[in-house]
Amino acid sequence: MSDKSGPLSGLEPRVAKDLEERLALATRDDTARGLFFNGVVGAVRSLGGDRAVERCLAASGEKKFTDFFNYPVASFLKLAYAAAQVMGPQYGGFDGALRRMGVQATTDFLSSAAGKTLLLLASDSPKRLLGNLHAGYRAAVSYGERGVSWTGDKSGIFTMKRDFMPPPYHEGTLLAVIEAVGGKGVEVHGRQTGPLDTEYTLSWQ
Description:
Strands 3-4-6-5 form a four-stranded antiparallel β-sheet, covered by helices on one side. Strands 1-2 form a two-stranded antiparallel ribbon. By secondary structure, the chain is α+β, with helices and mostly antiparallel strands. The N and C termini lie far apart (43 Å). The protein is globular. It folds into two domains: 96 residues, no CATH class; 80 residues, Alpha-Beta Plaits.
C-alpha cells in the first residue's frame, strides 16, 4: 500500500485505511479457497476486460488461482478491493460491488461438492442451511468462527468473529444463501462489532 502508483493507489482514504487495518491482522495461516478468487476475476473480466483483470491480479500478488487450492486471505483482500474499484460504477459504488462479490462467492461455493452437501442437508429450509453454514465456511476458509441465534421462525442474527471481509461482502453471501433455498423478501444488514467481528440481522418471508 505504500506504492502510491500501484494497483490499489486509487482507493478512497477511508477504504485504504480499512484495507490496511485488515491486512495488518492477517497471518500466513489465514487462507481461502481459489474458487473465491476466480469468482472475483470472472466478474471483473466481464465488466472491465483483460486489462482490468491484470490490474486486479497485480494488486493480489498472484498470477492465477486453482479452485481448491488455498491462498492467503491477504491476497484475496487486495484482489477484492481492487475489483470493487473496477466494478463500483456498475454496482452503485464500492460497497455495492463488494455485495455483488459476496453473491458470486455463494453461487460458486454452492456449486462445489461441499456446497451441494450443505444444500442437500438444508432440504429447502433457509433456517437449516444457516444453522449448518459454519461448516461450509470451515470447508472454504481457514479462519474465523460463525454462528447464528434465532429471533423468530424467519429471522435471526448471524455472527462472525475474526473474518477478514467487510460487512457488505457478507451481506451479499448471506442474501444469496437464503435465496438459494427459496427465501423471499430477504433482508440482511451487517454491523461491525470489532476490527474483524460483525453481526448480521437476517429476515425473510
